[in-house]
Specification:
The protein is of the alpha/beta class. It has a single domain, classed as Rossmann fold (3-Layer(aba) Sandwich). It has nine helices and ten strands. Helix 2 crosses helix 3 and helix 4 packs across helix 6.
């Protein structure tokens, strides 16, 4: 299994960002920048990165602030743009400055925002179950108080209402996820209100996109509203290729689910297609 090099970076406001980079022997076929989801971290993409390195691709990923080994309070942000700045810092590790961008879940929303700000460096976009619309309803008191608490107590940690068993059908992955000391299961009021703000702009960002898109998800997705995926793909400019894949019997993390080899195979094909289109 490919081993990454570890990097210590600074985001635009000085926040420490922990990053990993996996590289094949010789010149890579292309570059992939991965943006992880809520509560997880870059090292959880070790197996995916190893598969891509074996296919000749270099992979770079970082822990967003408040996640993994990066600085900041758990799950806390002041502005969504801070995540974009973190991703930009991680992208500085890519020598060519040109890459395919992959965002999972919350990371998908960061990726869309990144594309709207730094689109010139992105040759293709891959979204894995992006958090376009939340599929899990939080208690009414939480959603009702979110705006008030976002101003009064922005870093209050509350349960995220997500059932960890629904991330994948692979029981070993779920067990490792639950035992991982770097994984957390909370959100803050400010995080929630910032997510809502960026969700309001997502389709506008899609219509202004400058790259091809591949969006994939599991048919048994429980965290995100599946209908929002088709809406996003349909909003993508017709001058750019866009496609949607629904994987049967998969849950929220298709890259970590049973039968993941099929997903990796198609991912590599999509990366190759994006690379040839941008050449």
């Amino acid at each position: 299994m490919a081993q990454p090099t570890t990097h210590s970076l600074k985001s635009a406001d000085g926040t420490h960002i922990h990053a990993l980079r996996w590289q094949p022997q010789g010149e890579p076929r292309g570059e992939l920048l991965v943006i992880h989801g809520l509560g997880e971290h870059a090292a959880r993409y070790q197996e995916t990165a190893s598969d891509l390195v074996a296919a000749g691709w270099a992979v770079t990923a970082g822990d967003l602030r408040g996640h993994g080994k990066s600085g900041g309070k758990r799950g806390a942000i002041r502005h969504w743009a801070d995540y974009v700045a973190d991703a930009k810092a991680v992208a500085s590790l890519i020598p060519s400055g040109r890459f395919v961008l992959l965002g999972h879940s919350m990371g998908g929303m960061v990726a869309l925002n990144f594309l709207s700000v730094h689109g010139g460096s992105v040759s293709g976009l891959v979204l894995s179950s992006p958090a376009l619309r939340v599929g899990v309803k939080a208690p009414a008191w939480k959603t009702g108080a979110a705006s008030f608490l976002s101003k009064l107590w922005p870093d209050l940690r509350m349960g995220n209402e997500l059932d960890s068993d629904q991330i994948t059908a692979d029981r070993e992955v779920v067990a490792a996820y639950l035992a991982d000391p770097l994984v957390f299961h909370t959100v803050t009021p400010r995080w929630f209100t910032e997510l809502l703000l960026v969700q309001e702009k997502q389709f506008e960002m899609a219509r202004q996109s400058t790259v091809p898109l591949w969006l994939f998800h599991g048919a048994d997705e429980a965290f995100v509203d599946i209908s929002s995926f088709r809406t996003l793909v349909d909003a993508w400019p017709s001058i750019h290729h866009s496609s949607l894949t629904c994987w049967p019997n998969r849950r929220h993390e298709c890259l970590n689910d049973t039968g993941r080899a099929d997903v990796i195979s198609v991912l590599i094909s999509q990366l190759e297609a994006f690379s040839s289109q941008s050449a």
